[in-house]
Amino acid sequence: MPRKPRATAKSAEPTTDWGQELAAFGPDPQPPEPPAPPASDEPGRLAAARAALERLATWVPIRSLARRHRRRIVDHLLSLTPQDRYLRFGYGASDEQIRHYAQGIDFNRDEVLGIFNRRLQLVALAHLAYGQPLPGGSGRTMAEFGVSVLAQARGRGLGRRLFDTAALHARNRGIDTMFIHALSENRPMLRIATAAGATVERDGSESEAWLRLPPDTVGSQVEQALDRHLGELDFQFKRQARALSDFVDSVAEVKSHFDTSGRAAKE
Ligand SMILES: CC(C)(COP(=O)(O)OP(=O)(O)OC[C@H]1O[C@@H](n2cnc3c(N)ncnc32)[C@H](O)[C@@H]1OP(=O)(O)O)[C@@H](O)C(=O)NCCC(=O)NCCS
């Protein structure tokens, strides 16, 4: 049986304003008023342009993670509830099992994708494991996808974005099949997979989803390169902003210290 998870410092933060933290990741999943539905006779080209604009407006910076991010990966996974660990790994992973899993990620072979909030907290994480043999003994390999999004950040399309990005990366590596193992009760995960065109095979409490990927093109390679640069830029920008904010905080702290001692001296 899984051990009771250890509360991490980050998950215990009581003051995080998640609405503000997540504003950059698109609209609130429960907006006060739903947007007006598009006119039914809208021409196809206009609809496509609108979809492209929406995609651009809700662009989410996704970053490829490396070995040096292992601690953040562990923190993210440890902050998942027992139920989420069960959904993510197919069993109620203990803290020790999570550390072991994170330690075993092969960054040379696999890809790990992450989405950071303004405080550089990893709010969403995907692992694309390459080299899994395709059933049937053809000798070909597939990529297996696993994902988790912090509970506070769900319903904003982050899981879907990570899925789409992982599919793009796998495709650009010449992989033609992406595989997802999920519990049959995991409706959000199966919804993401089926919406992308995956075939789902249910076997009791477990399901397997198979997504066929098209061959890569110049466009798909350019898209990945562009995303990578923008994701990196966004991360560096957040890092600078955080350093600046820490600096302003420490100046304010020093100032308040001098104000207090000045007042005390006068008194
Ligand atoms: C699965 C998970 C990653 C989804 O993350 P997310 O960021 O909330 O996903 P998205 O916002 O992209 O939404 C996913 C889709 O599921 C749908 N959905 C959400 N809850 C649902 C529910 N209870 N039933 C059916 N569909 C649901 C959403 O409407 C959305 O579909 P749409 O875009 O067609 O509207 C997240 O729930 C999670 O981390 N779960 C725990 C770990 C896990 O289950 N990992 C997957 C196994 S590898």
* End-to-end distance: 63 Å
CATH homologous superfamily placement: Gcn5-related N-acetyltransferase (GNAT)
Provide the low-confidence segments as ranges. 1-13
Strand content: 15-25%
Task: Classify the fold: give the CATH topology.
Answer: Aminopeptidase
| Main sheet properties | 7 strands, mixed
Strand arrangement within the widest β-sheet reads 1-2-3-4-5-7-6
Shape: globular
**Structural class estimated from helices and strands:** alpha+beta
- Under the CATH scheme, the architecture is 3-Layer(aba) Sandwich
Percent of residues in helices = 40-55%
Please write the string of helix (H) and strand (E) elements. HHEHHHEEEHEHEEH
**With helices defined by DSSP (H or I, 4 residues minimum), what is the helix count?**
8
Which cofactors or ions or other ligands sit in this model? coenzyme A
Number of strands: 7
Descriptors:
binds coenzyme A; Aminopeptidase; alpha+beta; 267 residues; 8 helices; 7-stranded mixed β-sheet; disordered N terminus
Summarize the structure.
The chain is of the alpha+beta class and 267 residues long. The protein is 44% helix and 18% strand. Helix 3 runs antiparallel to helix 5.
Describe the protein's architecture and organization:
This is GNAT superfamily N-acetyltransferase. InterPro entries: Acyl_CoA_acyltransferase, GNAT_dom. Residues 28-40 have a biased composition (Pro residues). The protein is of the alpha+beta class and 267 residues long. Helix content is 44%, strand content 18%. Strands 1-2-3-4-5-7-6 form a seven-stranded mixed beta sheet, with helices on both faces. Helix 3 (70-78) packs antiparallel against helix 5. The chain is globular. The N and C termini lie far apart (63 Å). Residues 1-13 have low confidence and may be disordered. Bound molecules: coenzyme A.
